[in-house]
Amino acid sequence: QPRYAAFALLPMASPSSAASELERCVKQHKFVGALINNHCNGTFYDGESFRPVFAKAEELDVPIYIHPTFAADEWMPHYRGNFGEKAAIMMSIAAWGWHSETGLHVLRLWASGLFDEYPKLKIIIGHMGEMLPYQLDRIISTSASWAPDNKRGLEQVWKENFWITTSGMFSLAPLSCLLRMCERDRILYSVDYPFSGNEKGLKFIQEVEASGMVSKEELEMICFKNAEKLLGVHLPQ
């Protein structure tokens, strides 16, 4: 039995080719979805030109994982200021930008009506929800006014179309927030290797278990059962 499953790498600069590549990887090589960068040369994916990729993912019933990537060159002045370049770079990546920009991307996708067009689309985001769980109540309270044509509200889409990974956010506080803002069957354990190691991930799971924040059954769901269901993979018994 295979030990690994894979996400496809897609050429998002050519959405039609990306859709074809996703189909090839899933049908011919049994890949379980795709992982794509948070932008393509500074462009988010809410534009109509990217619709074929999401249409194909829905058709194939596989998730797309939107993962942070380095800021586009034209975004960097936003991060530079009265401090060193290292501070600017870190704020543009792991300290802030990776997460805030991916969270913004999610809101843009919803505002564009993407999830009305593809109501069964499955999207994965990492890092305990890319800042969204903490802000979600506030965002939802205003969302109807800035996307009035959307038939499916942001709260519904969050509950039905998104899965969240822990992905290197190995602390209890963000998990506590996520557990309040996300159903247990939508949370996936993830290590974020090589940025975070398996040893650190194991310690985190032990801390979660000791905290009593989730039941044993819920912890098993987060650790592997939710991934089995979403990705169609099965651990050997």
Produce the secondary structure layout.
Blueprint: H1 15-29, E1 34-37, H2 51-60, E2 64-67, H3 85-92, H4 97-111, H5 114-117, E3 123-125, H6 127-130, H7 132-146, H8 154-161, E4 162-165, H9 172-181, E5 187-188, H10 198-211, H11 216-231
Parallel strand pairs: 1-2, 2-3, 3-4, 4-5
Description:
The chain is of the alpha/beta class and 237 residues long. The chain is 50% helix and 7% strand. It has helices at residues 15-29, 51-60, 85-92, 97-111, 114-117, 127-130, 132-146, 154-161, 172-181, 198-211, 216-231; strands at residues 34-37, 64-67, 123-125, 162-165, 187-188. The protein has a 5-stranded parallel beta sheet with strand order 1-2-3-4-5. Helix 9 (172-181) links the parallel strand 4 and strand 5. It is globular, with a radius of gyration of 18 Å.
Provide a compact summary of the structure.
This protein is of the alpha/beta class. It is built from 11 helices and 5 strands; from the N terminus they run αβαβαααβαααβαβαα.
- Label the structural class: alpha/beta
Mean residue pLDDT: 96
- Enumerate the spans where pLDDT stays under 50 for 5 or more consecutive residues: none
- Strand fraction: 5-15%
Shape: globular
H/E series, N to C? Answer: HEHEHHHEHHHEHEHH
Share in helix: 40-55%
N-to-C terminal Cα separation, in Å? Answer: 12 Å
Helix count, DSSP H or I runs of 4 or more residues: 11
Instruction: Work out the radius of gyration.
Output: 18 Å
How many strand elements?
A: 5
